[in-house]
Specification:
alpha+beta; Rossmann fold; single chain; 5 helices
Length: 136
Amino acid sequence: MDDTNADALFAGCRLVVDALDEIPSRLVLQRAAARCGIPFIHGAVAGWIGELMTVFPGDPGLEALYGGEGPASRKGIEVELGVSTPTPAAVAAMQAAEAVKIIAGIGEPVRNRVLFIDLAAGTTCSVPLGPGGGAG
C-alpha cells in the first residue's frame, strides 16, 4: 500500500486500524483514511509501553506526535527496547474496542489525545494533542 492505491483499498470501509510497524507507512495510512473521510485507529508498542489514539479527518494525529513526515528513522524505540509479549495484545484489544465504539456509536473514542499504557507499572496516561502540531 502507498499513496497511489490506498484510497482504492479503503473504498467502502468505515474505519482503518493501524497494525503497521514503521512510521512512514503509518503516515500514509492516516493520510489515506483522512482523504476517504474515515477514522484511523493508531496503535504502537515498544517494550512494556503501548500507545493508542483515534484520528478523525481533520484531527491532529501522527504528525502531532512525530512532526511533519516523521523521524528520519523508519522504526521507533522498539528497535532498542524490544517488545514484551503481552503489549501488542493489550494494544490490539484497545484498538478493537475503539473500532466497536465507532461502528456501534457508543462511548467516546480516544480522540485528540494519546493514551499511553505502561503494562510493567500497571498505569495509563492520557496526553492531549495540541492544535499547533505538538503534544500539549
